[in-house]
Design goal:
With 375 residues, the protein is α/β, with parallel strands linked by helices. The chain is built from 14 helices and 14 strands. A hairpin with a 6-residue loop joins strand 9 and strand 10. Helix 5 crosses helix 6 and helix 6 runs parallel beside helix 11.
Length: 375
């Protein structure tokens, strides 16, 4: 848990609040002052940088600015097998070059990649928390150079500890019965905390017996599939069919987690969809944008279950990562059960990619048989 103490002349402000303010600034395209001991650096989202900001940063940088990129983006640029973030030196902060390296599809490395510092990797984590592309402009500065500037400052230890602190601070802020079609005895329980500044929801279907293994599904929000019935995924089918199954089989708990686009956010999900429409595989599309296979975290989901009194679960999922996260958080996974969606011409490649590249336990033969016309 991040401790509460006074820093940087703001009495009573906690480290957690400082990171929240930093996320807001970074997401708005304004620079954030990061601190690592005596070292300071300005960090700015590469995708949100504008000409005037870059001109001011360049004047401060004195040739020492650099672009920080994720290992996934570096691999896409040609650094095969790269598993660590790295930096490109920017003797002059050139927005066109930044866009080439951070954003453009067919770009390749134009200079050697140097190792990222602790300040650099914290800037990338701030980008991920802000749900922008994982690419940051970083300019080392002195306290004197930015004296008098209205900057939000955050300690890198606080940035890196933010996710765990949010999980530990989860609390129930509201609950009410919400009858659903096919599941009239349902309660929604809202938790504050988890990922970023977003609320999370537990949907308790029926009256599950907390003294036994409770059927549980961790369902990441999917605006396109859950709400609009997109044919590009199977999320909406899994959501509705899970609730129906729970209603017909003694109840269960569905955690509706605000982790759109495998944790990348709705804007980056749409960027990936655009690439998929041009022929890219779902995971290759994410890598072009700088993301690894899956950015989601499920530790806070386990915290939600514990607060609801759950100690043992039957995991309704095709994703071994979710099972491992539940077990790592100290809950028993007594069994697991597959959740079938409906394959169609638009999502069959996506489903096969989840099976082949992310290890999802998807039986394509069973899915195709389910989709076959009935006599």
């Amino acid at each position: 848990m991040l401790e509460s103490r006074t820093l940087f002349g703001r009495p009573g402000e906690t480290l957690l609040v400082k990171v929240e303010r930093a996320i807001s600034e970074f997401r708005a395209g304004r620079p954030v002052l990061l601190r690592a001991g005596a070292q300071l650096a300005l960090a700015l989202s590469a995708e949100l940088a504008d000409v005037e900001l870059v001109r001011n940063l360049d004047a401060l940088a004195a040739g020492n600015g650099h672009l920080v990129l994720s290992p996934a983006r570096l691999r896409r640029l040609g650094a095969k097998g790269r598993t660590e973030a790295g930096i490109f030196a920017l003797p002059t902060i050139d927005l066109e070059r930044v866009a080439d390296l951070a954003l453009k599809l067919e770009s390749r490395m134009d200079a050697p990649v140097a190792p990222a510092s602790a300040l650099d990797t914290a800037a990338l984590e701030l980008a991920r928390l802000s749900l922008v592309l994982p690419a940051a402009l970083v300019v080392p500065v002195t306290a004197e150079a930015v004296a008098g500037e209205s900057l939000v400052e955050a300690d890198i230890e606080a940035v890196n500890a933010y996710r765990a602190a949010q999980a530990a601070s989860l609390r129930i802020v509201g609950r009410a019965p919400v009858p659903l079609e096919g599941a009239p005895e349902t309660e929604f329980v809202v938790f504050r905390g988890g990922e970023g500044l977003r609320d999370q929801v537990a949907i308790i279907v029926g009256k599950p017996d907390l003294d036994t293994a409770v059927p549980v599904r961790l369902h990441s929000a999917c605006l396109t599939g859950d709400l609009f019935g997109s044919l590009k995924c199977d999320c909406g089918d899994q959501l509705r069919e899970t609730v129906q199954w729970m209603a017909e089989n003694g109840g269960g708990i569905l955690l509706y987690l605000d982790q759109e686009g495998r944790g990348n956010g709705i804007s980056n999900k749409m960027r990936a969809y655009k690439l998929q429409s041009q022929g890219w595989d779902t995971y290759d599309a994410d890598e072009v944008l700088g993301f690894d296979l899956d950015q989601r975290h499920f530790d806070f989901a386990a915290t939600m279950l514990k607060q609801l009194g759950v100690t043992s679960v039957v995991a309704l999922t095709n994703n071994p990562q979710k099972i491992g996260a539940i077990e790592a958080a100290g809950l028993e996974v007594a069994a697991s059960q597959r959740v079938l969606g409906r394959p169609n011409a638009h999502n069959v490649r996506y489903l096969a990619s989840k099976r082949d590249r992310a290890g999802h336990l998807i039986d394509m033969d069973a899915l195709m048989a389910r989709a076959a016309p009935k006599d």
